[in-house]
Design goal:
Elements lengths: L1 E2 L2 H17 L5 E5 L1 H6 L1 E6 L7 H7 L1 H17 L5 E4 L2 H13 L4 E4 L11 H8 L2 E4 L15 E3 L3 H5 L6 H7 L8 E5 L4 H21 L4 E6 L2 H13 L7 E5 L2 H7 L2 E5 L2 H8 L4 E5 L3 H10 L7 H6 L6 E3 L5 H13 L1 H18 L3 H13 L5
Parallel strand pairs: 1-4, 2-3, 4-5, 5-6, 6-7, 8-9, 8-11, 9-10, 11-12, 12-13
Helix pairs in contact: 1-17, 4-5, 5-6, 8-11, 9-10, 9-15
């Protein structure tokens, strides 16, 4: 198994546990993070090595990542597994999957690449590379209908693990938050490059919100010591250590459950916020070169998963040069001040939650075992 970032690490950990429940004798090895390691993965390379953000960041690390991929493929071909499961990270995994598939090893890709958002030409490459695709969203199989790719919609593990209704008061009590002042969650991303790019914008946004919402508190979950250190450095640089910020080591769902509104870097965290029924403002920034390339290949107007799932703009997105503190603070403040709109949005998110709740890890595990068939040792 190979996962390349925090969201893939979470998905992979759920899948390992589901597979182990069906096959207690199963062994797991490859690339993953701390959650997959805790679930039983023998980590050959830490997932952090693959965590890059945008094309420019990928180019800076291309030699190291290519060397990891070659070494991994060689090792797996020398001692073939019963199956290879690539958890997201398509730019890394599809090349390995293609080599393994050619050599008769089932190559299963868990999480459809975002062909429905951009790079639709990837479908042909996916068809050549994978034995089976496990899709998290109900609209995805239609994109592969004409390609010959075997696709199973399994639902999204987050929809299974997040309760349909959140007790905000209980979570706030657990986090030591008292009083009636507004609580904001700030999620600047899971990768170091994302935090480097987002930290200053998020801190300045918090400063504006603190001015407009007296007594407001800010929760900032960060996934690693490295991302926390980078965020703390930016607080020092911007002389913002007096802001009422509570830094959390992980616990993104607690931060979202406790908040009145969230500022979220585009990615899986936007889905977590939606499943918890929270209003949000979505932010996306990358290098100018990466952004120009992405916009040329995009064919739908949305970046954030809540808007993609709804098929329309239900929460605001601020992309690239639009992602400035004044815009973000205004939009997030508008959400928190408009409880009627928040209630309407929560009802929509509840419907999306129900559509994605499918006991996905169990479904995915059964599908993977059916792909292995007679190869099982």
């Amino acid at each position: 198994m190979v996962a390349g970032e925090a969201s893939g690490d979470l998905l992979g950990s759920h899948l390992i546990r589901a597979l182990r429940a069906l096959r207690p004798d199963a062994a797991f090895c490859g690339i993953g993070g701390p959650m997959m390691a805790a679930a039983g993965l023998d980590v050959w390379v830490p997932a952090e090595k693959l965590a890059v953000h945008g094309y420019a960041d990928a180019l800076r690390h291309v030699r190291e990542i290519s060397a990891i991929r070659r070494a991994l493929a060689t090792r797996l071909l020398r001692d073939p597994p019963d199956a290879f499961v690539g958890v997201d990270a398509p730019d890394f995994n599809l090349g390995i999957e293609r080599r393994l598939k050619r050599n008769g090893i089932p190559a299963i890709h868990y999480v459809s690449p975002s062909v429905w958002a951009w790079r639709a030409g990837r479908v042909r490459r996916i068809a050549r590379s994978v034995t089976h695709l496990l899709a998290l969203f109900p609209f995805e199989p239609a994109f592969y209908a004409a390609s010959g790719v075997q696709v199973t919609y399994v639902g999204h593990p987050l929809a299974d693990s997040i309760a349909p209704h959140v007790d905000t008061a209980a979570v706030r009590k657990r986090l030591g938050l008292t009083g009636d002042a507004a609580v904001f969650a700030l999620l600047p991303g899971s990768r170091q490059a994302e935090v480097d790019r987002m930290a200053a914008i998020f801190i300045d946004t918090a400063r504006l919100l603190a001015r407009d919402f007296p007594g407001a508190r800010f929760l900032v979950p960060l996934v690693s010591r490295e991302t926390r250190s980078r965020f703390e450095l930016e607080l020092w640089r911007r002389d913002a250590r007096d802001l009422p910020l509570k830094l959390l080591f992980g616990h993104a769902q607690d931060a979202l459950a406790a908040c009145d509104g969230a500022l979220v870097a585009s990615g899986t965290a936007t889905l977590e916020a939606a499943l918890l029924g929270k209003p949000m403002v979505i932010v996306y920034r990358t290098t100018p070169w990466s952004y120009r390339l992405m916009r040329r290949m995009a064919y739908q107007p949305w970046f954030g998963l809540p808007n993609i799932l709804a098929g329309r703009f239900v929460v605001p997105e601020f992309i690239q040069d639009q992602a400035v503190p004044e815009n973000l603070a205004q939009a997030l403040g508008n959400w928190v001040s408009d409880r009627v709109s928040c209630t309407r949005l929560a009802r929509l998110f509840d419907r999306i939650h129900g559509e994605l709740r499918r006991d996905s890890a169990q479904h995915a595990a059964h599908t993977i075992l059916s792909c292995i068939g007679g190869r099982s040792k």
